Amino acid sequence: MSLRLTDVTLTYPDGQSRLTALDRVTFAVPAGALAAVVGPSGSGKSSLLAVAATLIAPDSGTVTVAGADTTGLGRAALTDLRRHTIGIVFQQSNLLPSLTAAEQLRVMAHLDGRGRAGARTRARTRALDLLDAVGLAGQAHRRPHQLSGGQRQRVTIARALMNDPTVLLVDEPTSALDNDRGAAVVDLLTRLTHERGTATVLVTHDRTHLGAVDRIVGVHDGRLREEMVTESQ
């Protein structure tokens, strides 16, 4: 499995006691599969995503990413793991207003330390290829204010794929989009997951566009409940 959480418990301080966000959760996603995690606000789905992204360490249990057990890793090692192995699409696009769509992607290669001339050329080529893959080949030189909400979300997805991650984690990608654009984004994520072989987790409260995903898992009071698995799984 490219992503596995095993017996994970996560709690937060709550006055004199602690609030349980994840309660002995076991959850695995193989390469090339998209799992949708659904549930209302406060159910634990965002905590699940944060733990899977190694942004929060659980109280107990293990998180394994691309075969690497993250338990006990220091801050630098976790940062390196995220940079090379995990792509994250946050709910807000956080695109830099002064950069073009292509530059938003290329800056990821610079953060990865690929600063030499040959690497810069490869980064430019990969950025254009990814923008083409998300349907924005003609928008590479546009800045965020020149793009629609759906187009900005596609740039964000392409940016998360720039360093060829094994695991792709996506937080509420349709929350700010209308029905048609939301459906298009979920379809895009499904296609890219299957084509590029990522283990993708899509966290959402909106069940409207999940017909083509590989799995749907509900979160209720920090516990998971399998709701749908396709025959291919």
Automatic annotation (TrEMBL):
Domain of life: Bacteria
InterPro entries per record: AAA+_ATPase (IPR003593), ABC_transporter-like_ATP-bd (IPR003439), ABC_transporter-like_CS (IPR017871), ABC_transpr_LolD-like (IPR015854), MacB-like_ATP-bd (IPR017911), P-loop_NTPase (IPR027417)
Keyword tags: ATP-binding, Nucleotide-binding, Transport
Keyword Phosphoprotein attributed: no
Pfam families cross-referenced by the UniProt entry: ABC_tran
GO cellular component, one term: plasma membrane
CDD domains xref list: ABC_MJ0796_LolCDE_FtsE
Keyword Nucleotide-binding among UniProt keywords: yes
GO molecular function terms noted in the UniProt entry: ATP binding; ATP hydrolysis activity; transmembrane transporter activity
Annotated ranges, domain ABC transporter: 3-232
Protein name: ABC transporter ATP-binding protein
Organism: Actinophytocola xinjiangensis
